[in-house]
Amino acid sequence: MSGSGHHRAAQRPLMLLLALITGIEFLESAMFVFSSSHIMGGIHATPHEFARIPGAYAVASMLAILNQERLARYFGYRAYLSASLALFLVGAVLCAASGGVNELMAARFIQGLGGGAFFTGCRVLINLMLGAVERPRALRYFMIGIFGVSAGGPVLSATLIEHYEWRAVFLGVLPLTLVALIGALKWLPAVKPRREAAPWEWQPLLLFAAAAIALQWALTESRFDFFSEPLALLGLAAVGVLLSVGFIRLQWTSATPLLHLPALRHPTYLTGLGLYCLHYFLSNFSGYLVPVFAERALGLPLATTGWLLSFTATVSLATVLVYVFVLARRFPSKKPLMLTGLVALLASSLWFAALPPDAPAIALLPALAAKGMFGVLLVIPVAGLTYKELAEEHFGHAYQSKNLLRQLAVSLGQAVAAIMVQRVTAIEAEPLRRTVGAGKALTELVDHQALFLACEDLFRLLAMLALGSALIVFWQRRLR
């Protein structure tokens, strides 16, 4: 084997490891979301109480992302990511051992402190460790790993719940996490940037934590209290925004900022951030709505719903492979691919909206396939174009900022979907109740029919959002 061939072979385990570490968090997230109702029943939580648990993970994840570069600079990437994997593992065990809401919330916070490091840390490592020649291959591994590892999340969750119980959902990620931890200790070099570690400043950290908690709390509580206490929730969100503005001002003028924001003012990067947020909002809006429609509105069994969602993820993986090996080379301009992704979401939403109440599982497959294509054809071109005009030394801060906004967009998409399902279901139920009358059995029938009609209304709304997003992508000129 030639020297260059031997070097490429030596780099392959590292590339696979970075893809695996990132994929683990995506897998665990998919498993948790799919199993939420069963976990909620296992700890005897109300929906309102349970909604705060994902919020705890999101806040912890944002704190981890914010401190990523500074911790990696101080400890080195091998120690940093190994410790993060260990913390994630401990958090998973504590989640499985939890007996109540507060215990699970604390355990998810610990897990989020570990898992929040995976996506940003591994992606930044690709740029730090690999040259321009090796980087495209590493990014292919990275994308395939994320979609490949997470594809089995829903069906794995359904299988674990059917054969064991809800605690097995958290224990199910332990084998892969242990493999990743061993690999990190073996293959990750102690990569450190050349700059000396900056002094720790607690004021921006506390300000950011307060802003994150306020925004996340407002989004969480809005799922249940938006129509009963709108002013209080809007006030809490406003406090979060003001605290965020204060944090940004501190970072803008700081000599040793956690995020080098002035360097990220490039219009191409800002446009990319906007499209990232658009993708994550639409993806999580539809990601919340589809399982509700399949399991509660159509009455499909849990295992069937799991297989359907894993089918969607498998289509996404297949689309990644086609994109990486065919489309990326054949389409120098990526705008047609982004538009195709949004048209796929539009078609998927209209298909769902046209399904009858007794639709079998197989009738969902075309819409799910289109939804799987959307998740790839929009975000991967955006990922490839957003950072192209930024200086290399600013990539880490740019990726941190993107993933912070990702967490907020994910929470916003889920919260808006939950609010809309609740509100539109109530609107649809009112005339049905007047027509049908009273009685427990009739009330349950009305509630079920109202939920079905609400989901169809929201799929039509999602189709309009996809169309509006396509117009935005078409008219913008920065990412082509």
Structure description:
- It is built from 20 helices and no strands.
- With 480 residues, the chain is mostly helical.
- The model has no long low-confidence stretch (mean pLDDT 90).
- The chain folds into 3 domains: 8-188, Up-down Bundle (Growth Hormone, Chain: A), CATH 1.20.1250; 202-251; 256-480, Up-down Bundle (Growth Hormone, Chain: A).
Strand and helix map with partners:
Layout: H1 3-34, H2 36-42, H3 47-50, H4 52-66, H5 68-75, H6 77-97, H7 101-129, H8 135-150, H9 153-163, H10 167-171, H11 174-187, H12 202-225, H13 230-253, H14 267-297, H15 302-330, H16 335-353, H17 365-377, H18 379-386, H19 395-436, H20 440-475
Q: Summed up, what is this model?
A:
With 480 residues, the chain is mainly alpha-helical.
Query: What CATH architecture label of the largest domain applies?
Result: Up-down Bundle
Can you count the helices? 20
SSE string, helices as H and strands as E: HHHHHHHHHHHHHHHHHHHH
| Mean pLDDT value | 90
Runs in which pLDDT lies below 50 for 5 or more consecutive residues are none
**What is the CA-atom radius of gyration, in angstroms?**
22 Å
Shape: globular
Largest sheet: none
Percent of residues in helical segments?
Answer: over 70%
Overall number of domains: 3
Number of strand segments: 0
CATH superfamily of the largest domain: MFS general substrate transporter like domains
CATH-defined fold name of the largest domain:
Growth Hormone, Chain: A
- N- to C-terminal separation? 40 Å
Which structural class do you get from the secondary structure elements? mainly alpha
The level-1 CATH class of the largest domain: Mainly Alpha
